[in-house]
Amino acid sequence: MIQEYPCIEVNLDKIAHNTREIIKVCRREDIETVVVTKVFCAEKSIVKTIIDEGIKTIGDSRIKNLINVKGLNCKKMLLRIPMISEALNVVKYSDVSLNSELEVMKSLSIAAQKLGKTHEVILMIDLGDLREGVLPKDVIYTTKEILKLSNIKFAGIGTNLTCYGGIIPDKNNLGKLVEIKDLIEKQLKIEVPIVSGGNSSSLYMVLNDSIPKGINQLRIGEAVVLGTEAAFEKDIKNFYNHAFILKGEIIELKKKTSLPKGRVGVDAFGDTPSFEDKGVMTRAIIALGKQDICLEGLYVRDEDIDILGASSDHLLLDLTNCKKDYKVGDIVEFNMDYPCLLATMTSPYVMKCFLK
């Protein structure tokens, strides 16, 4: 079979292994794992793999991705706080959503009544990262208002850390989330079933047994797909790191000078490039560009190759010191970090191939 490039090879066995491991790690602390599927656009074969390993709930930021896995036997969580304009589809295609605005939850209530469904909401609380969430002082009032909404079930509370402000989860901020849970239960005389303590950046606390008791859910993406925790970007023992391999084809291979000739202005992205004079080098172009990748998170698997840069559709490499004798038409393999994987899986120009 002729392979189409560029492509990502996805090793489903490695993803299955990482899923089993993350369930085992979190179960030791009585924590439910919600696997975040947005980084691979909820590709159905990958979602089915993680469900088969025992995951009960998946989470995604895009309704279109949740529609893509309609019919699979799992609970579906919308991670991005909903838009009022999509309320009907939120209720139709997700079972639970993360929320911070009462007006949005009122719209979800109306949609749920219309569809004859009960929709669960998790109230997000801002504990310092300054992305989504009500302030702690507003939690009791907001929860009271949620409890008044028809066809809406208050499922619990959650927080997000690291993604915007870079705030590291610790005993103080996650401990505060548990304190808020206790406060709600005491003042409102209700149960708070879910205390969702963030994403893969909270995982290091599970691994070193420091996560506060009472956190009973984590929303995990990076650990499953890349085998790393997100707070300090460390590999996790017994996890696979390279379940996703990007492959690109060499479309030009020539010896050229390292310095462009002529007056330097801005490039296609409005930046003024600078160059180091390394003399004549062996330069390759890969049919892959910034439209498909996050360049800063791309790593060549052949350590003798250096990345020079990229335009929209061309990736430039330095092969001067390569031991392997590359030719036009040969394939170069890359590892990716989380942002690069997200961009590449989202690109319709990169083929996705699934291996077992």
Q: What name does the CATH topology of the largest domain carry?
A: TIM Barrel
**Main sheet makeup:** 8 strands, mixed
Low-confidence stretches: none
Number of strands: 16
Class from helix and strand fractions: alpha/beta
Number of domains: 2
Shape: elongated
CATH superfamily of the largest domain: Alanine racemase
N- to C-terminal separation? 17 Å
Q: What is the CA-based Rg, rounded?
A: 23 Å
Enumerate how many helices there are, as a single number.
Answer: 10
SSE arrangement, N to C: EHEHEHEHEHEHEHEHEHEEEEEEHE
CATH class of the largest domain, anyone?
Alpha Beta
Strand composition percent = 15-25%
What would you say this structure looks like, in words?
The chain has helices at residues 12-27, 44-52, 63-68, 87-93, 102-115, 139-147, 171-188, 203-207, 222-226, 338-346; strands at 7-11, 32-36, 57-60, 75-78, 96-99, 119-124, 152-158, 194-196, 217-220, 244-257, 280-287, 298-300, 306-310, 314-318, 331-336, 351-355. Strand 3, helix 3 and strand 4 (75-78) form a beta-alpha-beta unit. The model has no long low-confidence stretch (mean pLDDT 96). It contains ten helices and 16 strands. It folds into two domains: 12-226, Alpha-Beta Barrel (TIM Barrel), CATH 3.20.20.10; 244-355, Beta Barrel (Lyase, Ornithine Decarboxylase, Chain A, domain 1), CATH 2.40.37.10. Strands 1, 10, 11, 12, 13, 14, 15 and 16 form an eight-stranded mixed β-sheet that branches. An eight-stranded parallel β-sheet has the order 8-7-6-5-4-3-2-9. The chain is an alpha/beta fold and 356 residues long.
